[in-house]
Amino acid sequence: GGGAASSPRPDGEVGMRTGVAQGAAVLSMRNATGKEVLYAGAAADQTGFMRLADAEGDEAASLVSTGGGSLVLKDGAGQVTASLATRGSGKGAGLELLNGTGASALTLDSGDDGAGRLMVGTATGVPAFMAEAKGQSGTLSLYSQERRVAAIGAGRAGGLLNLLDLSGRPIVVAGAATDGDGGAVSVRNST
To answer: How is residue 102 annotated by DSSP?
Structure first.
């Protein structure tokens, strides 16, 4: 079974519709110009979906509960500008902010081990800076021309520093020694 209902606005046009059929329910609301600005539904599998639109009826945000949940925000032209989503059961979540061309400007998420990661992207969305935790330590990395050129990290014996040339060869390597007291510094020619 099922059923539907609607409510008119003062001008006589339908402003709200709701209905239930085959285990799913929906709600639709329209503004004074007849544009759908809210749509919400529940499907037979008990997942939900909600869509919010601007005055012209263009989608501005959506919320989906399938697989945990996601929230997507869009600009006035319909381009995705931000996304917040779960990574699956027990795997945390991720947040991504996009620039005007749709490239990733900032990403925050958790890795498979549950540790946090941060990526700041260039105008084209490739990494410029990354910070990530691994186990009980972390690493900061700087990139140039899509190659890692600097890294500061924590190892078993203490801090580590690597400076690399654009081909990925180490130029300066410094860190706490793992096989005894003290540390080591190595400076190499890039050619």
So the answer is: S
**Beta strand segments in 43-91, E:** 48-53, 59-64, 70-74, 80-86
Q: Which of 78, 120, 128, 67 shows the shortest CA–CA distance to 95? A: 120
Answer with the residue of higher pLDDT: 4 or 119: 119
Structure tokens at 50: 């909600």
Cβ–Cβ contacts within 10 Å for residue 6, how many? 11
- Could you tell me the CA-to-CA distances from 132 to 18, 111, 142, 166 in Å, in that order? 46, 9, 12, 22
pTM of the entire predicted model: 0.77
Q: CA distances (Å), 104 to each of 1, 112, 138, 139, 154, in order?
A: 46, 20, 22, 21, 27
